[in-house]
Write a structure and sequence with these properties.
Helix content is 35%, strand content 24%. The strands form two sheets. A six-stranded mixed sheet has the order 5-6-7-3-8-9, sandwiched between helices. It has a three-stranded antiparallel sheet with strand order 2-1-4, with helices on one face. Strand 8 and strand 9 form a beta hairpin. Helix 2 packs parallel to helix 4. The chain starts with a strand and ends with a helix.
Amino acid sequence: MIRIVNLRHRLIDIPDLTVDARHIAVIGPNGSGKTTLLAVCSGIEEPRRGTVQLLGRPPSAVRIGWVGEFPDRTLLFSRVYDEIASSPRFHHRSCRETDERVRAAATQVGISHLLEKKVSALSGGEKALVALAAAGVDDPEVLILDEADSHLDAGTAACVQSAVQKSTAAHTLWCTQSMDTAALADYVLFMAGGVVRHHGTPEEVFTRLEETCFYPTMWRIRR
């Protein structure tokens, strides 16, 4: 369960919000506070006021996997294998367990063939998949993606979607500009002006957004 109480941070103003769903999409216009909310939920930023709890604990006490919009800003190692292995090594896992985790994470996102490649030689889509594998290698309890699909072709975006669906994380918070992706979530948060304007199942939220640009394209075709 995700519990937010009296959260005031930068432009965000969320008095009370409880979400108990596995896959949660965060949508809304640019500048609405989506990235700031994810930064607070991930523990990257400490809220100025209020509390955020994930699984009954503060973010600092939760295993969190983070994937940002621009993987070039977060990938630190020159070789793909070392990038994915960084978290298990940081937690002092054995060489054998680290290797098993790295190969399992790479297989899950379909990049086993890239493990010995230089990160600098990868395409943007491949770097995004490496970042996703690195985020999932240590079995995060909560997986957070901040528009990780924004600059991907359809095939790579589908790989990301598939890997996220396979994740064992209790919660996935996914900020996305793809309303068709958001429509596949269990729960949707629609933000505007730092406030959660609508929240609920995709049907409940998108019914209120039918006459806006935030209505899923596939739903319009189906309708």
